[in-house]
Amino acid sequence: MLETQDLTVRFGGHVAVKAVSCAFAPGTLTAIVGPNGAGKTTYFNLISGQIKASAGRVRLGGQDISELGAPARAKAGLGRAFQLTNLFPNLSVLENVRLAVQARAGAGLNLWRIWSDRRDLLQRAEEVLELVALADKRDALAASLPHGDQRKLEVGILMALEPQVFMFDEPTAGMSVDEVPVILNLIRRLKEDRSKTILLVEHKMDVVRELSDRIIVLHNGELVADGDPATVIASPVVQQAYLGVNPEDKEEEASA
Q1: pLDDT, tens digit, for every residue of 172-205?
Q2: Cross-strand partners of 20
Q3: What's the rounded Cα separation, in Å, for the pair 212 and 215?
Q4: What domain range includes position 219?
Q5: Which of 129, 169, 172 is nearest to 153 (CA)?
Q6: pTM
Q7: Is 86 exposed, middle or buried (0-12, 13-18, 19+ CB in 10 A)?
Q8: Is residue 175 included in any domain, yes or no?
Q9: How far apart are CA 58 and CA 66, in angstroms?
């Protein structure tokens, strides 16, 4: 479904992402992990078109989308949620989702048109609000929502757009312990659709272990590990680079 080939970006003399080649299949959730500054969000930005690659290609469904900007990639089927919420703050919760439903249906972005002939689109927006547990806040302004509800609304907008690839950049960042399960349940629901591909950048290793089918590890902009969660988490490169554990120290403790 999605593939990067030798994807690279340089900022001056600094190589932030270096020749990362990876393919992501439908029906899988891949967690992208690594220490701060490893290039995870930059890699996401390259895939979704927020920044232009210095070298390499991005393919979606077999089509080269490397020259497309972020809006065109979204239209092609890439759905992206950011570390910081990306909403229309002065529109209501329902209007935010309704715009996404309209865009998905090719019905334009006019909030003020007569809706009597498109009740199906309004009904779809209402269904999405039920799924993300925001139906009771349908008329509230997005800006007035607490942070956790704003994250839920952003996931709802993504669901309304029905992309082929869902990209979540630290979806639980800044959320309280009580709010985190709601977002995780939404991602679990998305995983049930085996035609979709999900990419997840996440620092919480318990979340990564529970949700991911596969983990790739970036370190200093390079792909250093790729495989099933148990194998990757136990690998020396991850123990040292990501978890800050030196495997040799573990061996010394065991022998002692």
Answers
A1: 877 778 878 888 888 898 899 899 999 999 888 8
A2: 7
A3: 7
A4: 2-89+163-255
A5: 129
A6: 0.84
A7: exposed
A8: yes
A9: 5
